[in-house]
Amino acid sequence: MREVEAVLIRVLSSQGGRLPVVWSSTPLFRTPRRTQGRPTGGTRSRSATSAVGSAADRIGGPRCHAVPVHLYHSSIDGYHSSSHTTAYEAAFAGGHPSLSFPLDGLPPMSHLPRVFVARRIPSVGLDRVVSQTDAWVWEAQMPPPRHELLRRIAGCEGVLTLLTEQVDGEFFDAAGPQLKVVSNFAVGYNNIDVAEAMRRGIQVGHTPGVLTDATADMAVTLMLCAARRIVESVDEVRAGKWKTWEPLGYIGQDLVGKTVGIVGLGRIGTAVARRCRFGWNMNVLYHDVRRNETAEAELDARRVDFDELLSRSDFITVHTDLNESTRGLFDRRAFARMKPTAVFVNTARGPIHVEGDLADALQDGTLFAAGLDVTDPEPIDPSSPLLRLANCVVCPHIASATVASRNGMAEIAADNLLLGLRGEPLRCPVPPPETDS
Ligand code: GLV
User: Fold this and answer.
1) Is 397 a catalytic residue?
2) Residue 111's pLDDT is what?
3) What is the best residue among 400, 406, 409 to mutate for testing ligand 1's pocket, by most ligand atoms within 8 Å of CB?
4) How remote is the CA of residue 188 from the centroid of ligand 1, in Å?
5) Can you point out the beta strands (E) in 139-238?
């Protein structure tokens, strides 16, 4: 990497420090490609990225472009770098390229809006962002540390964030007054101070709709897994503890004809209700600040108050957003009102249930089982009592983790970012706080 770093320092220094770096580890500059007249390329590995970053830092902090080539090999959408061979590649095929070659004749980067992308997202969205902006993509698996995030967004006109990035007054101050848009790669946006963004005239986008079915499927998966003791059974098989077919072994709960209580009957809650109604002929109760007349007509759903939902439901599934009235909603008092045969499912946000109270309820028989895709904190503390309970299924916040959902999210997030940079209305703006659901 030292040799590579030295080469990069030479290149960056000779170009005044502000230029795109088209990069791949072996051979040097192997797979650059042209997108809309500008080449983009990237780092093949994290060590290559550090070489780029470190070379940049050593000549006084110029910004360069390091976009992961391995993303193009990603199987998530079949995007493959071999379909992007270009004249550049041919020029470099002979071996070590002339270092000035890929940089000659490129448009200056300074006219492109500067953006920070807080993680690699599917290429269907990322490619458009890197080809149309002066982008820095945070490549690491882990989120940027706060100080690094604040440093990277300084001077940016747009930032693509994930739920792990707290977007607040400090964030906006660090970015500067030129910030036009924050595009959140998520349907939820409890990580963003939307009121403060609006006060400052910054547009905020999110990615609704494309993950509705995947999230509803996850909720139903957790209902089934928890009710039918799937994880506990699989664990026993894997541990060699399956002894025989037992008439009284691994007995769980049915779904057919039971009552599902849905807290938050918006897009995702309604998709869960449809699955329950049409899949298992379940009765649907819901609790929401708003009436959902469409779901009432289509699914015979009945709106009830919270306590009635708790006491009458066999399955309770959470699909509300996290706000001050839903934080800690499922606590000791709420669990005590549920049936001892009830299954609790949360695919919305971890802080909506109180972890210690849930663990107690599962342990002392107040509740039959629980299925969680969200925890507080995330990741869950490895010493959490929930992880030692056979009747609790915990997944690592994967509800939207399907090819179609994540690609759809990437497309919307890219659209939101690019539209916001042009000062146009976003494809999916978050609703203003007062009309927020
Ligand atoms: C995931 O939790 C999301 O809000 O998209």
Assistant:
1) yes
2) 82
3) 400
4) 5
5) 158-161, 181-184, 203-205
Model confidence at 360, pLDDT cuts 50, 70, 90, reads: very high
Q: What is the DSSP letter of 163?
A: T
Buried residues in 205-228 as b, exposed as e (16+ CB within 10 A): bbbbebbbbbbbbbbbbbbbbbbb
* Share of residues in the chain with pLDDT > 70 (%): 74
Per-residue pLDDT tens digits for 329-345:
999 999 999 999 999 99
Longest Cα separation, the chain? 78
Q: Please give the pLDDT value at position 13.
A: 52
Measured over the CA atoms of residue 165, residue 169, residue 174 and residue 180, the dihedral's sign is positive
Q: Are strands 158-161 and 114-117 parallel, antiparallel or unpaired?
A: parallel
Domains, the chain, ordered by start:
2-210+406-435 (3.40.50.720), 212-394 (3.40.50.720)
Strand pairing category for 181-184 and 203-205:
parallel
Q: For ligand 1, atom 3, which residue shows the shortest CA distance?
A: 186
**Pairing mode, if any, of strands 33-35 and 38-40?**
antiparallel
How many Å apart are CA 220 and CA 371, to the nearest integer?
Answer: 10
| Crossing angle of the two packed helices 212-227 and 267-274, in degrees rounded to 10 | 50
- With CA atoms as reference, report the closest residue to 118 among 142, 87, 84: 142
Do residues 369 and 362 lie in contact, with contact meaning Cβ atoms separated by under 8 Å?
yes
Q: Residue 40 phi/psi, 5° resolution?
A: -130, 155
Higher pLDDT, 293 or 100: 293
Reduced to 3 states (helix: H, G, I; strand: E, B; else coil), residue 252 is coil
Please state the φ and ψ torsions of residue 369, each to the nearest 5 degrees: -165, 165
Q: How would you classify the pairing of strands 302-303 and 283-287?
A: parallel
Place 6 in a pLDDT band, splitting at 50, 70 and 90: low
Ligand 1 pocket mutation pick from 215, 347, 374, 402 by most atoms within 8 angstroms of CB? 215
| Ligand 1 atom 1 nearest Cα | 186
Whole-angstrom distance, CA of residue 293 vs CA of residue 370: 29
Q: Which amino acid is at 52?
A: V
The mean pLDDT of 78-105, rounded to a whole number, is: 32
pTM: 0.78
